[in-house]
Amino acid sequence: MTQRQARLVAHFPGVNSTTVWSDPDSGSQIDFASFAHFARTAERGLFDYVFLAEGLRLREHGGQIHDLDVAGRPATLAILAAMASVTQHIGVVGTLSSTFNEPYELARQLATIDTLSGGRVGWNVVTSPDAFHGANFRRGGFLPYEDRYTRAEEFVALSKRLWDSWETGAVLADRGSGRFIDEQLVHPVVHSGPQFDVRATGSLPRSPQGYPVIVQAGDSPAGRDFAAANAEIIFSRHADFAAGQQFYRDVKGRLPAAGRTEDSLLILPAATFVIGDTDADAAEASRAVGFAQTTPQTAVAWVEAIWGRELPGLDPDGPLPATEPGAGEQRLGQVSTRVEDRVARAAQLRARAAAEGLTVRQLVAAETASHTFVGSPETIAAEIDRHVQGRASDGFVLVPHLTPGGLDPFVDRVVPLLQERGVFRERYETDPETGAPVTLRRTLGLPQPPRPADDTTKREAAA
After folding, report:
1. b/e string for 174-208 if b means 16 or more Cβ within 10 A?
2. Which of 377, 203, 363, 224 is nearest to 299 (CA)?
3. Residues in domain Luciferase-like (predicted)?
4. Backbone dihedral angles phi then psi of residue 99, each to the nearest 5 degrees
């Protein structure tokens, strides 16, 4: 039986809860040298693509900027273009909101980078329904939560129409004539829908891969339906084997209703990792990394989010508060505002802290900073292979805890073992005729998106 091939993606850790800022080996989160090192390491490891998150606003807690965001959050599109310029094969994928962007502008920007990179761009489509982020755009909570996927679906469909608005023959081969564009082969896109009213024409011909690979991360029923209809990759949170198998079956089971096949969608959960010479060494290192990932400020903010109020004087190295939670709402994290839910959660945390003798910071680290893969290189390679062969995932989006060198140990120690197992590539595919790098979609083994029937096709059919 043919072994399934593992897909690997590198998530630039940057500004998130996995980053250990205090480590002596930690570098800048925003200098281009960090992005360049990370992208080149991922390409050296033959990864499919580098993945970037997007922060439209610095996170706050109690009206203050959270300590995870003090390094800054640069704009994704600029970084994608820069990383593509220092690599040849690897894809570059960015998270960009369908709530606080407009289809023509974003489609044009993505098409530009996709064309310049030779077809190596992907778009992680996210929705942003809340007033906190909306305040940056003078929109507040203008979009009801239940409408966010309606807008996203219309956004993606309209973007594809813009990317498809140039026919294949729109760029003429006879450049000596001085006339490059046949205006009859470039079509305006006229769209009127509940979210957008647009009359426009795409400003570029199709890129070598058609258009950017569409990635999506929604997990709700609406998000899963959106993914089955639109996404080519799902950035999943189900890294546990059993939960991953269930999610895999559920989402891929929705594809036939959307007229799609199983190989048209990849499911790639996020995964953290700690590597040791032995499994015992890695387990000890994992505890130390998890504690370092949980700063005293983060621990206090996490508890305050559950308690629904500020807790002045809370000692991160002391016990949980004796008072009961309230109904307030904190900015950091998604916590239910129902008092009974908060009280029940507080009781669970108190029970665990008492049973294991944990301080506030130790408890928060235990609750939030566990790692997906912990062990020797052999153990981690075997676990990744088990998930892929068992259809719990098609691979993983790996999130190291150090910037920019945290991916290097995985590339040096785990990738060769996956190659020995025959489940990971030993070189990038290149065009058999020219030897040039291929597109991201081809690297991922995804089908080329079909072109809609254009006027040329219709004229040929009529003839």
Report:
1. eeeeeeeeeeebbbebebeeebeebebebebbbbb
2. 363
3. 23-389
4. -90, -40
Q: Shortest CA distance to 264 belongs to which of 279, 280, 252? A: 252
Predicted TM-score (pTM) of the model is 0.89
Angle between helices 76-85 and 32-44 (to 10 degrees): 50
Neighbours of 370 (CB within 10 A): 12
N-term to C-term CA, the chain = 48
What ranges make up the beta strands (E) of 221-367? 233-236, 266-275
**Torsion sign (Cα): 349, 355, 358, 363:** negative
- Judge whether 95 is annotated as a binding position: yes
As a whole number of angstroms, the distance between CA 301 and CA 62 comes to: 8
* Number of helices (H), then strands (E), in the chain: 16, 13
Reference 128, options 148, 107, 142; nearest CA is 148
Q: Please report, for the chain, the start and end positions of each structural domain, with discontinuous segments joined by +.
A: 7-279+370-443, 295-368
Q: Which helix (H) or strand (E) covers residue 200, if one does? A: strand 197-200
- Average of per-residue pLDDT across 42-51: 98
Hey, what are 37's tokens? 């090192």
Pick the range with the lowest mean pLDDT from 56-60, 260-264, 318-322: 56-60
Q: Is the peptide bond before 404 cis (omega within 30 degrees of 0)?
A: yes
Q: Is 220 annotated as a binding residue?
A: yes
The pLDDT score that the predictor gives to residue 331 is 46
For residue 45, give the 3-state DSSP assignment. Answer: coil
> What is d(CA 422, CA 450) in angstroms, rounded to the nearest whole number?
31
CATH superfamily, with its number, for domain 7-279+370-443: Luciferase-like domain (3.20.20.30)
